């Protein structure tokens, strides 16, 4: 029970933080729960299917080269996971009437991301224990949140644009870019000191996420 709570506590903290930032028209608890469930169930299933696909058709050797680590980070992991979250927002949430202000892109994308992150975190923490729980509370969970915020910013922008496809895909691409960069520097940790790149990527993502939140707060205020 303690491990389960330690895995879910940072997820809850992110959800509360973003919910509080939604100043002008709170989303219903039902819709937030739906978004979370989509991430925790459907996104996980899609990601698993994509991982199996890559294992079958793009197998990587045991001793990865840096180029192969790049492919794994950006295309196998980042693209699979972020696409699985993106499609939940795009197909099930963005078309709804309740998605009626730009900030909704952020809150729905974060809820989907936190549903995904909750399941992922439980699996890692059960295997690795409290040390893993503490480490991921300050790394992987904020990373998933920042990827969701960046994606959601552009998906919120897309909802009220005449060029919805463009802004939606920019949101997906940005999430994949930051996720891929974060993982890539961790995957090539065999190069001394290179892992710092992951934390720099995370820090930049968090800074941009805060700016994205402020920008959509201002826009949503006039909607």
| Average predicted confidence as pLDDT | 92
> How can the largest sheet be summarized?
none
From the helix content, strand content and strand pairing, which structural class follows? Answer: mainly alpha
The total count of helices amounts to 8
Distance between the termini: 43 Å
β-strand percent reads under 5%
Q: N-to-C SSE series?
A: HHHHHHHH
Pick out the low-confidence regions: none
Number of domains: 1
Q: Write down how many β-strands occur, each being a DSSP E stretch of 2 or more residues.
A: 0
Using only C-alpha atoms, the radius of gyration works out to 17 Å
Envelope shape: globular
Helicity, in percent?
Answer: over 70%
Question: What is the compact description of this entry?
Answer:
By secondary structure, this protein is an all-alpha fold. It has one domain. It has helices at residues 2-21, 29-57, 66-93, 103-128, 130-137, 140-159, 164-187, 196-221.
Tell me what the structure shows.
The protein has one domain. Helices cover 81% and strands 0% of the residues. It has helices at residues 2-21, 29-57, 66-93, 103-128, 130-137, 140-159, 164-187, 196-221. It has 223 residues and is mainly alpha-helical. The protein contains 8 helices and no strands. It is globular. Helix 2 (29-57) packs across helix 4 (103-128), helix 3 (66-93) packs antiparallel against helix 7 (164-187) and helix 7 (164-187) packs antiparallel against helix 8.
Outline the fold blueprint.
Elements: H1 2-21, H2 29-57, H3 66-93, H4 103-128, H5 130-137, H6 140-159, H7 164-187, H8 196-221
Helix pairs in contact: 1-4, 1-5, 2-3, 2-4, 3-4, 3-6, 3-7, 4-5, 4-6, 6-7, 6-8, 7-8
